[in-house]
Design brief:
Elements (H helix, E strand, L loop, with lengths): L2 H18 L8 E4 L6 H9 L4 E4 L2 H10 L7 E4 L8 H5 L4 E5 L2 H7 L6 E6 L16 H10 L3 E7 L8 H15 L8 E3 L6 H6 L4 E4 L1 H4 L7
Parallel strand pairs: 1-8, 2-3, 3-4, 4-5, 5-6, 6-7
């Protein structure tokens, strides 16, 4: 399949899943994850109407953003784990950062001069080595984000654990999202769903889908 065909197929599946959930495609932002792929693929996605793409490695993302600076309305989403010392550099090109999981990172991204949109990432496992804050930390992090200058809290992000049925994991995220909205009513978005499970994510309220190989195809063999 071509890139155009894969994008069309994912879009059709997302629309069908949304309809089953009483929603519409307009409720969703489909974000192709373009890591390890050349800038030519990002440009082709743009020509197909895509305006959001995602990267998870700072150096690669920064280089692509610089090379594609002529695409002024292309939004870069950063979805990887982020070191505090790199936060300001990522903030310089990323419009949305999906992987914020600690107060110190919020502070590093805060600014009186620019606004950065963030998702709080929640860890759905018992393994603290995995990215994301523990569910019990979300209320405090939400309050911290609301106090930080230049931070716009979009909502929650999570990755479904491999050993849990995806919809059950996403139902938990939905419940946590409803909880943090009691503190931050504008934090309405949910960033869940990847190539293998995005239909389950849509059923549980996902608004932002981070789709890799289902759209972009396999990574180049030299990547």
């Amino acid at each position: 399949m071509t890139l155009e065909e894969r994008l069309a197929e994912v879009t059709a599946r997302a629309a069908a899943a949304a309809a089953r959930a009483g929603r519409t495609l307009d409720d969703l932002t489909i974000i192709p994850v373009t890591k390890f792929h050349p800038v030519s693929l990002v440009r082709e996605l743009y020509e197909l109407g895509v305006r959001d793409v995602a990267e998870n490695r700072h150096q690669e993302a920064r280089e692509k953003a610089l090379e594609l600076a002529d695409l002024a309305d292309l939004r870069w989403n950063f979805v990887g784990q982020l070191q505090g010392k790199k936060a300001r550099q990522v903030r310089s090109y990323a419009h949305i950062i999906h992987s914020v999981d600690r107060a110190s990172l919020i502070d590093a991204l805060a600014s009186d001069d620019t606004q950065t949109s963030i998702f709080l990432q929640v860890n759905l496992t018992e393994d603290p080595a995995r990215g994301g804050a523990a569910a019990g930390q979300l209320d405090e992090l939400t309050e911290h984000a609301l106090r930080a200058p230049g931070i716009r809290l979009e909502g929650l992000m999570a990755v479904a654990p491999l050993d849990v049925e995806p919809r059950a994991a996403f139902a938990r995220v939905r419940a946590l999202s409803e909880r943090i909205r009691l503190i931050a009513p504008a934090a309405l978005s949910i960033s869940t769903g990847m190539s293998a499970d995005f239909e389950s994510a849509i059923a549980e309220g996902a608004t932002h889908l981070r789709i890799g190989t289902a759209i972009t195809g396999n990574r180049p063999t030299d990547g």
